Amino acid sequence: MDLISKLLVFRPSGRLSATQALEHPYFIRFHNEEFEPTCLKGINVFLDDNRKFEVRKYREEIYKIIIKRNKEMRRQRIM
Known about the structure:
mainly alpha; 3 helices; 2 domains
């Protein structure tokens, strides 16, 4: 209940981060920093907030963005 109450905070600045959640006693037996990379910059998903998607469609749109970004990153490495 403690973990859930800390994750279900409406205001993002008051909510546990993923890193903080992994340090919670509930996850202590699963936590292994060697296998848990940390993202050092923010992630922005550019989907129109005014459009409502079904879960399946939302997932597809996110995957399209990820695939496009991966292709762009590969092209940059080649050059």
